[in-house]
Amino acid sequence: MDIKLASSRVLRDSLEPVGPLHLVSPGDVITSESGFMRGHGTFMEEGGGNLKASVAGMVDRVNKLISVKPLKTRYNGEVGDVIIGRIVEVQQRRWKVDTYSRLNSILMLSSVNLPGGELRRKTEEDERMMRDYLSEGDIISAEVQNVFSDGSLSLHTRSLKYGKLGQGTLVQVSPSLVKRRKTHFHNLPCGASLILGNNGYIWICPTINEDTDQTGGFVQNLEPVAGGDREVIARLRNCITALANHGIVLFDTVILYAYEASQKYSVKELLQSDIMKEIASLSRQRMEQEL
Amino acid sequence: MAGMELLSDQGFRIDGRKPCELRRIQSKLGVFGKPDGSAYVEQGNTKVLAAVYGPHEPRGNIVKLQDKVVINCQFSMATFSTGERKRRPRGDRKSMELSMHLQQTFEAAIMTELYPQSQIDIYVEVLQSDGGNYCTSVNAATLALIDAGIPMKDYVCACSASYLDDTPMVDINYLEESSGGTELIVSILPKSEQIVFLSSNSRLHEDCLNKVLDMAIKGCKDVYLCLDETVREHMTQVSASFSAD
Amino acid sequence: MAEILMSEAERTFILHGIQDNVRSDGRGCEDYRPIELETEVVSNANGSARVRLANSDVLVGVKGELGKPSLDTPEHGRLEFFVDCSANATPDFEGRGGEDLALEISSMLARAYDCPSCLDTQALGIIKREQCWVLYVDILILECGGNLFDAVAIAVKAALGNTKLPVITVRKDENDETELEISDDPYDCERIKILNAPCIVTLSKVGNQHIVDASLQEESCCLSRLMVAVTENGTITASKTSGSGSLNPESIIDMLESGKRAGTLLNKTLHAKLLEEEVKVGTKKKTMGFLT
User: Fold this and answer.
1) Is B8 buried (19+), middle (13-18) or exposed (0-12) by CB count in 10 A?
2) What range does the record give for the signal peptide (chain B) (predicted)?
3) Which 3-state string (H, E, C) describes C76-105?
4) From A72, C80, C195, C245, which residue has the greatest number of CB atoms within 10 Å?
């Protein structure tokens, strides 16, 4: 039983920024020179030639394109991103998926694999069986296939590594903490698997065997998970929450450092804020050393 | 209020401020985890929490707009916020009116055309009330919107002003509000000095109008400086932890 | 409360975890998540407290007003509870959305504090049948992270302990009429004894086991729960089941025993922390509030 007083609250460390940061807030003039293309987070002032920022964040300049990346925002999908989503609605020939973006994403019936990896045209019977495969509340991993004109995403699970997810824990963090990398599926040496969704949803589950378990999610294993695996998953969950609370960008390396740093505490002790802070700063220091 | 001097002989107000001085502003972004954006603002003894959800799919009976985002505001006061206990936190005429004013104010500032068919919810909760509820709510909502990363043309800063004891005064507290003088509330976009919302009650001589309005606009610009400082400090802190890439 | 969506596999995972006594964040079945407590946060109220239980955030203000005692207890003061679910917590609470939950919480609190040994309401009486203190306990729910009843009860107990009521002397003036004199001195005040005030423990039944302090995900897996109001010496002042499932009599007895254990521990720890906070208030204490 742990009750703390607010007066003994642990404050976040004040960090020194590395290098000069060009930070702007809404209404600030970024530049008055012409010839720049405006990206996200900027707008042209009416009647003037100034390029102004519309969100608070860092200015990102790539050749002639200026955009402002806000610190915290809903997920803005791009083609090729790996995401984890939850089914919210079953409609005719498609599912509506919640991916923490401003509009629900769409998974078309034609974008999923049938049991066993068959590829054929979907018949009427398939339409009626949609709910048997994916119903409301199910979690899937998928890839962004297309972005519609209104901004909503079209997903597909046309590979056996995607599909409905089985037993495990979902952790929600801000999408800006998950950067785009080559692979988002990690089998950690400590005995669990991790899927880092670009939309900030992170899935932790018992180790996925490449050969046997990748069935596209059609075979659900509801057997009880072993106690040891369960503890590993719980520990990883607490480590990821600690890192996210301190704004550390999530990779498999930094998560492993946090996992190793947490070994001296029991899993439930990791819920306390002072221990979370310690783990976050140890992982950050180790990351900086390795760079 | 007999015997209460709003302005002393030396030119100090009841709480020791000069007529053109604002109350102390303290604020913080990102107070809660669940809303997309949240902020807490204290102006003197008035404390307000704001939370922003969105943009997200429209919920309930809200009608989707094809070309812009729907902005939904709710203004609510805690029952223990006022000196005399308030019976209903929201739903009474005053709160509904303030909710509508908030909606009008932010429709002018948020770039609504960027999010068609979506909805943004802005919820404001007054924890302690000592005058200037609407102004502090606008300031808190602006910070919450910035925290949520929702594009806006500019900050929206609000300030109140009055004409008491023959002097224009800025940022009036509860005692000054209830003394019977006029209360002029102004919200502006500070960079372009455009007025987004203006309201006044009670009588005000037109000769004094300019002075009081100017005082209120200057007050808004001072508020902007305080809010911007908080935003920059917050951004510096957060970006410092992102730099490890 | 709105049910959050979960897949069948997730529910199975949570269910098996509870059976193994390893919940999804590593806690055992009778462990609470970390709690943070602060008193004197609102200056307009006679007493206030703020409690953070993981993601749940509750702010309570207690205001004392003079009123008429109720007819069946003419010498006692009374407590009135009011719960407001702010839309900050979740958009579902907008407008009148949170009223059902608010009603449930306030009626549970009213029953928990109804017991005469909990709070000395006779000390709140001033003039028999005429005047008494009415304590309005206003609860504001700012964020929902599961297990609201427990968080609310802790905050209410802390706020009542923090309440300072001005001393009232009853005198008879020249015309032999009773007169109330309210002390103006801010330091001349009465405190309320909360030694026997109850805390609520919610036990959620998941599968064949029951857990204390359920998170939002665990709450959506549980079909029935039992809430008990327990005092420091183990007395149960109120209890209530809720949810759509049914409970075995044996499980209810087990849950009551767990509730008593968890409740007495919670009360003891809370009491120790409140005393520590009192000492700090005596010296110059910096209000943390929401700013840091």
Assistant:
1) exposed
2) none
3) CCEEEEEEEECCCCCHHHCCCCCHHHHHHH
4) A72
Contacts of residue C92, defined as CB under 8 A and 6 or more positions apart, other chains included, come to C2, C98
- In whole angstroms, what is the distance from residue A80 CA to residue C243 CA? 43
Instruction: Name every chain A residue with its beta carbon within 8 A of the beta carbon of C24.
Output: 169, 233-234, 237
Beta carbons of C5 and A137 less than 8 Å apart = yes
In angstroms, the CA A279 to CA A270 distance is 9
Angle at Cα B225 formed by Cα B224 and Cα B230, nearest 5°?
95
Inter-residue contact C259 to C236 (CB < 8 Å): yes
Which chain A residues touch B115 with a CB distance below 8 Å?
102, 151
Chain B nearest CA to C162, separation (Å): 15
Euclidean distance between CA atoms A78 and B25, whole angstroms: 40
For C137-170, how does the pLDDT look when each residue is reduced to its tens digit (9 = 90+)?
Answer: 999 999 988 889 999 999 999 999 888 888 888 8
Chain B residue nearest residue A17, CA to CA: B240
Q: How far apart are CA A4 and CA A15, in angstroms?
A: 25
Report DSSP state, residue B110.
B
Residue C218 has pLDDT above 80, yes or no: yes
Query: Which partners does chain A have (≥3 C-beta pairs < 8 Å)?
Result: B, C
Residue B41 CA to residue A78 CA, distance in Å, equals 36
Distance CA C10, CA C18 (A): 12
**Other CB atoms closer than 10 Å to residue C203's CB: what's the count?**
28
B-C interface: how many C-beta pairs under 8 angstroms? 95
Q: From the CA of C221, how many Å to the nearest CA of chain B?
A: 21
Is B40 close to C290, i.e. CB distance below 8 A?
A: yes
Nearest to C291 among B40, B81, B82 (CB): B40
Compute how many other C-beta atoms are within 10 angstroms of the C-beta atom of residue A262: 23
Average pLDDT, integer, range A241-258: 89
- Reduced to 3 states, what is the DSSP secondary structure of residue B196? strand
Chain B nearest-CA residue for A70? B149
pLDDT digits (tens, 9 = 90+) for A107-145: 998 888 776 556 666 677 766 778 888 888 899 999 999
* C250 shares contact with chain A (CB less than 8 Å): no
CA C143, CA A274: separation in Å to the nearest integer?
22
Question: Which among C52, C144, C236, C55 has a CA at the least distance from the CA of C226?
Answer: C236
Which sequence spans correspond to the domains of chain A?
23-70
The model's pLDDT over B157-171, given as tens digits with 9 standing for 90+, comes to 999 998 887 888 888
What was the pLDDT predicted at A155? 93
Concatenating the DSSP letter of every residue in C34-56 gives PEEEEE---TTSSEEEEEEETTE
A23-70, which class in CATH? Answer: mainly beta
Is the CB of residue C42 less than 8 Å away from at least one CB of chain B?
A: yes
